[in-house]
Amino acid sequence: MKMNNNLINWYPGHMAKTKRLISERLDLIDIVIEVIDARIPYSSRIKDLDNLVKDKPRLIVMTKYDLCDKKETDKWVNKYQNDGYRVLTLDLTLNKSIDKLISREINEMMFEVNVKKVAKGLSKNRPKVLIVGVPNAGKSTLINRLVGKKVVNVGNKPGVTKDLSWIRVNNNFELLDTPGILWPKITEEKVGFNLASFTAIKEEILPLDEVSTYILKMLYRYYPVKLKERYGVDSIDDEEIVEVYDIIGRKFGCLIRGGNIDYDKVIGIIINDIKNGNVKGITFDRFDNN
């Protein structure tokens, strides 16, 4: 499987606009929250974020921690902590103290920020926090949980948030919400397929059959038991991939006239299983391979 040229140079205009607006507002920002998907803790990081936010204090929030392979993802947690970042792992479906956890982190981070402000003769104000992430990393869900009600739209596809907007979370801090952003060129093939597998880039960017095959191969390589349990597949061979789709098609009743397999339905099932979290306990970014 090879990425097509459209993916390598794919960079929607609204993302360029978002980065420009962030740069224009950066002087107002005290802290940056970077939201990443715990299942792809390397691929879902914004590669040029350091250049964009300069030396602003950073909190990495790993969402969908309930869906990841914790043993593998925790290797990335340790790496990022060793790199000097604060890291918080969250289950957005069950964790009822998210606002307290985030507020605590921000309060601790603001101590150093306020020391610098006082040294410059500036007053301590309510912290202003920039929140960024690739599409579909869970940023909108996190914001709604922080506020305690729906203030931004949520969807399991890219492009839900359209503009930058200030949101007052509580008396502790304000958030500057941003549309999901990526980077001008995706040069690593596995990063492109990881982003596509977890719906961080639009489905039409890569051929869906290649994305679904990539998902199956990753499951076979790292999670063969899950592959067997969910799809009834014991092994995968490039030369027999159609037979694999036949097995899945028969298991899920994806049949058309004449008893033939509806391969589009099979592909949709595989991709939606990942999108909707039906296959849990998986992490596609392998620490030892990056």
Q: How would you explain this protein's 3D organization?
A:
- The chain has a 6-stranded mixed β-sheet, sandwiched between helices.
- The chain has 11 helices and 8 strands.
- Helix 8 (208-222) crosses helix 9 (224-231) and helix 8 crosses helix 11.
- It has helices at 5-8, 13-25, 49-53, 70-82, 98-119, 139-147, 189-197, 208-222, 224-231, 241-251, 263-275; strands at residues 31-37, 58-63, 86-89, 128-133, 165-168, 174-177, 255-256, 260-261.
- The protein folds into 2 domains: 5-177, 3-Layer(aba) Sandwich (Rossmann fold); 207-289, Conserved Hypothetical Protein Ylqf, Chain: A, domain 2, CATH 1.10.1580.10.
- The radius of gyration is 21 Å and the shape is elongated.
- Mean pLDDT is 86; it is low at 156-161.
- Helix content is 42%, strand content 12%.
- The longest helix is centred in the middle third of the chain and has 22 residues, at 98-119.
- It is of the alpha/beta class and 290 residues long.
